[in-house]
Amino acid sequence: MRKRRRKPFQRYFTVAEANALVPDLSIKLLRLQAMLRRLREEYGEKETELFQRAQSNGKHPEWEASEIAPEIHKAVDELHSMGVLLRDIEQGIVDFPHLRNGREVLLCWRLGEKRVQYYHELDTGFRERKPLWEDE
Is residue 135 over pLDDT 70? Predict the structure, then answer.
């Protein structure tokens, strides 16, 4: 069986470039979280979780009747167009593609952190993140 190739990243960020986006990302994520709360009020907890999972898979007709769903889609698309990877809206987790010592990793930041201080491997996630100063 052939290994499936992943799409190349739109761009790579330096730590300084990622940190420069933190103030703007904070505002965008807080706004997105507020929209998600409104969606939850309209459709309930379970439906909102399904909406979050469906972000990249397509659209749900019932949600599209909502005024909030298109706003959320637009906000998520705006983040993706910046080249960042939105991992979790509620926790505000964002990854930035990065080259570390010549290999691809993801810088990892969570809403509320003052700056990007962690990274993780492509095949791991937030729980396995390591401090940037480790292994240097």
Answer: no
User: What is the rounded average pLDDT of the residues 84-112?
Assistant: 95
Q: Does residue 10 lie in a domain region? A: no
Mean pLDDT is lowest, of 8-12, 39-43, 104-108, 132-136, for 132-136
DSSP annotation string for 60-127: -HHHHTSSHHHHHHHHHHHHHHTT-EEEETTTTEEEEEEEETTEEEEEEEETT-SS--EEE-TT--GG
Rounded distance, CA 50 to CA 30, Å? 20
* Structural domains counted in the chain: 1
Q: For residue 77, what are the domain limits? A: 15-131
| β-pair type (118-120, 103-110) | antiparallel
Residues 6+ apart with CB under 8 A from 55: 72, 73, 76
SS3 state at 57: coil
